[in-house]
Amino acid sequence: MGHDHDAPTGSGVDTAMGSGMDGAEPSESALAAVFTGYLKLQSQLADDAAQSAHMSLKALLDRVIAAAADATLPESTTMRLHKMHSALLKVGKKSDIALDRAIFRTLSEHILAIEKAGGNPLAQPLSVVHCPMAFEDEGADWLQAQGQVDNPYFGASMLRCGAVIREVSSK
Asked: Residue 116 and residue 15: Cα distance in Å, rounded?
């Protein structure tokens, strides 16, 4: 119902996507960089690329710090970026995909709130997806490129578990 556990695997996310923000305001570029880093991380977790995902979490910290320092962003966005910063400080020195997925869940809560309040800063349309089985059936949402569901919480074991609950138009 809403998802197919037997669908072929593989991520549909283009991890080399640019921000598409030529001539944009600094706040848009900084925020777009956070969204781009988040989408790369989502794709890597869905692909079970533990080491790459771990490195992306560390790189996302720098992007979040840069965006949070932008005084032109709304206060609510800055608050969410500070909460993302706090979550990213929990990233360990060694790769631990279970911990990294838990941190991703927190990041997802905040990036979804940023998107809902201010829209998608990317030139790429996105989807909000929900997996009811994540985190021992508590369920969890995430943002991803439009296309097939690529579950970052389960990876290959249940890659297509989830349903799109909302489409997000591009900038």
From this structure: 23
